[in-house]
Amino acid sequence: MTVRDDVPESAPAQPKPASSWRTRLRTVVLVIVLVAAAAAIARNWRELVEALGELSPWAVVAASPFSLAAMIISLFTWRSLMADFGAPLRRGDAARIFYLSQLGKYIPGSIWSMISQAELARDLHVPRRTTLTVGVLTIVIAQGIGLPLAIVTLPFAAPNAAERYWWIALVAPLFLAVLHPKLLTWLLNKVLRLVRRPRSTTRRRGAGCSARRHSRPACG
């Protein structure tokens, strides 16, 4: 991404105590999420049991390491982007924010996980616009990586789906092009200008949390 070398290095801020009303609100939201998750499981219980019955135990065992790796890589990607946008987080804080926010996916709507990230990160003095911007970029990166993988695997996993979604092969190169740092930063700055937000800046191209030795204590 475009770099501004004058952006100072910043250590992760210490968590600030949440106010009583925010604590109560989070408790209510957590209860809503758990109820929504339970309702979703109950509503689709028959389909869930049938799907589990069709899975081979060996297939589940073989796929589990890849699923775990995907979850860890997603966390590292999100944490690295947060650091590049001037909000380095310690591993424990990043994991808590990222994984807890995923519970928001059980609430109808596709934005609750990002809103949860923004609210949880506020306890570490991270601006909401930074967390929301990183959340959008994380989705874009995931799509840019997932679409080419879908092109390769769909013909083997679901031939009928491959015939139906052939147009993915046309869209995937566009997502890959958008992932180029220069183009991605240009598009992001255009969007931020439309919503009248400050331009995007990063500490260093691809710096993340581990590129510089002196940044590791801030991110560790």
From TrEMBL:
<protein>
    <recommendedName>
        <fullName>Flippase-like domain-containing protein</fullName>
    </recommendedName>
</protein>
<feature type="transmembrane region" description="Helical">
    <location>
        <begin position="57"/>
        <end position="81"/>
    </location>
</feature>
<keyword id="KW-0812">Transmembrane</keyword>
<keyword id="KW-1133">Transmembrane helix</keyword>
<keyword id="KW-0472">Membrane</keyword>
<feature type="transmembrane region" description="Helical">
    <location>
        <begin position="25"/>
        <end position="45"/>
    </location>
</feature>
<feature type="transmembrane region" description="Helical">
    <location>
        <begin position="164"/>
        <end position="188"/>
    </location>
</feature>
<feature type="transmembrane region" description="Helical">
    <location>
        <begin position="132"/>
        <end position="158"/>
    </location>
</feature>
